[in-house]
Amino acid sequence: MKKALLSIVTLVFVGYQFINAQDACSKYYPMVEGSSFQYTMTDKKGKVEGVTDYTITNVSTDGGTTSATYDMKFTDKKGNEVFHNDYNISCSENGIKIDFNSLMPSQMMGQYEEMGLEMDITGTDIEIPNDLTVGETLEDANVSVAMNMSGIKMNISVDQTNRKVEKKESVTTPAGTFDCYLITETTTSKTMGATQEMNNKLWLAEGVGMVKQESYKKNGNLMTRMELTKFND
């Protein structure tokens, strides 16, 4: 169970960074109801491991804050649905905030609650300024999950550090060709005393969001790649 939770927490947390823009919240991704986009994850050999589909199902504005509901569905390489979840974000002049309590898939959470599992999710939002500058260092981010099942406690944490804007370059995926900023970072996952560290490369395009992401082992070998394969704004 803890391995499954760590995988989902890492996938969800790392994948959320394409929507976190400060100030004008639509700078790097349009918060428009009905917008949809798809990412395909492949292994180091290019074989498909899974597909994540997102749809913005609701957008509302109250005062200076805009709130959006995202529908996320992850299917494995065989086309089987692994988890399906809604999560909420809000945007104001101070940036986008994620409801961390909605990060975990509700269906899975329901199953764990039936097993007597109590879960508390906390974290620090990922932030990407609207005016990115090559050479800029970005703030660290993290998410932590504390679990308690019949007195047995488990903790999972994912930290993103060493976040830096490396350069600008053009990137082509099945969804098109985009002018991107390349952001590098280190992701450290900890669970029950075990630590896993990987280095990520994130390509971010204005008005689109994350176009491509690659994860590498500490020795530099490619682990996984995630690319934008469909986009409809």
Task: Determine the fraction of residues in helical runs and give it as a percent range.
Answer: under 10%
Q: State mean pLDDT (0 to 100 scale).
A: 79
Radius of gyration: 17 Å
Structure summary, number of beta strands? 12
Structural classification: mainly beta
Count of helices? 2
Q: Name the strands of the widest sheet in spatial order.
A: 5-4-3-2-1-12-11-10-9-8-7-6
Q: Outline, from the CA principal axes?
A: globular
Secondary structure layout plus pairing:
Layout: H1 2-15, E1 36-43, E2 48-62, E3 65-76, E4 81-92, E5 95-98, H2 106-114, E6 117-124, E7 141-149, E8 152-173, E9 176-191, E10 194-205, E11 209-216, E12 222-232
Antiparallel strand pairs: 1-2, 1-12, 2-3, 3-4, 4-5, 6-7, 7-8, 8-9, 9-10, 10-11, 11-12
Would you write up a description of this structure?
- With 233 residues, the protein is mainly beta.
- The protein contains 2 helices and 12 strands.
- A 12-stranded antiparallel beta sheet has the order 5-4-3-2-1-12-11-10-9-8-7-6, with helices on one face.
- About 3% of the residues have low confidence.
In short:
The chain is mostly beta strands and 233 residues long. It has 2 helices and 12 strands. The longest helix has 14 residues, at 2-15.
Question: Which tags fit this structure?
Answer:
about 230 residues, mainly beta, 2 helices, about 10% helix, twelve-stranded antiparallel beta sheet
